[in-house]
Write a structure and sequence with these properties.
The protein is built from 11 helices and 11 strands. The chain is of the alpha/beta class. Strands 6-7-8-9-10-11 form a 6-stranded mixed sheet, with helices on both faces. The chain has a 3-stranded mixed sheet with strand order 1-5-4, with helices on one face.
């Protein structure tokens, strides 16, 4: 993923491309929509501007029965945008202009809503020093249970000491792919990841591409293989929908194995279409 901090640079990039599809997205938002589609009561906190894309974003969430806990207003920066380029082999490159989403602060987080939730899901994409960190800290301190996606190796490498502190001391569930978790803990092999997870005593869920997925909780280690025979079109949202399926299992008291299976099922569905929403 490439982060673009200059609005003019991003607009220039868009001007040379034909956009095939525009949808409201974002990692956690995609996961929350997936949870809603599975019949769970969900809400979302995220910062948008009161502009055309901000209105579409809010409408997109409400159409999926997601309660949107943010009152949009005119901001200095526009609603964030992510350009996703998908190649014929289904791989994708993301160019992200966070816009006002990257300016989320503690005043945007309603502690009462967090406290009344069974679990919250955070994304590494939005973690940063300053106001975003304060927003994260406020949400974490108000929550019963905290899950977080490490989001991207770019994020892990940029914030490694902070992410490691979160995983060790503040998160109940960590979602990562194999490269992200190896980088985070400086592991030489995947056995190091398993040992780290066992010692941690919390839930670590790792997706491993064609090796499937694994969940570690203390000495309990569960694995799940991939779905075979799929016509893979677009990998965008695979991790987001996997997290949705796993969390559906978690909040409905399914076993680690069954939660992995649900995550794999949701992920398998979304990669057979364009876009990160089912």
């Amino acid at each position: 993923m490439k982060l673009i901090f200059d609005e003019k640079e991003f607009k220039n990039l868009l001007s040379n491309l034909k956009i095939e599809k525009t949808v409201s997205g974002g990692s956690v938002a995609n996961s929350v929509v997936g949870l809603s589609q599975l019949g769970n009561k969900v809400g979302f906190i995220g910062k948008v501007c009161d502009d055309e894309l901000g209105a579409k974003y809010e409408e997109g969430l409400k159409n999926e029965n997601v309660e949107y806990f943010y009152s949009k207003k005119k901001e200095e920066l526009p609603t964030g945008t992510c350009l996703i380029l998908v190649t014929p082999d289904s791989e994708r490159t993301m160019c992200t202009f966070l816009g006002t989403a990257g300016k989320i602060n503690e005043n945007d987080v309603n502690s009462d809503i967090i406290t009344n939730s069974e679990v919250i899901l955070l994304e590494g994409y939005l973690w940063d020093e300053g106001d975003p960190k304060k927003a994260f800290d406020k949400a974490i301190s108000s929550a019963k249970k905290v899950a977080m996606s490490l989001s991207d190796q770019f994020c892990v490498d940029r914030h490694k000491p902070h992410f490691l502190d979160l995983v060790k001391n503040k998160l109940d569930i960590t979602f990562a792919n194999e490269q992200e978790i190896l980088s985070l803990i400086g592991a030489k092999s995947f056995d190091d990841v398993i040992n780290f997870g066992k010692e941690l005593g919390k839930i670590i869920v790792v997706t491993r591409g064609d090796k499937g997925a694994i969940a570690i909780k203390g000495n309990e280690v569960s694995e799940c293989g991939i779905k075979e025979g799929l016509k893979v079109v677009d990998l965008t949202g695979a991790g987001d929908l996997f997290a949705a399926g796993f969390l559906h299992g978690y909040i409905n008291n399914l076993s680690l194995k069954d939660s992995l299976e649900k995550g794999t099922e949701m992920s398998a569905k979304v990669i057979q279409q364009i876009g990160a929403r089912l």
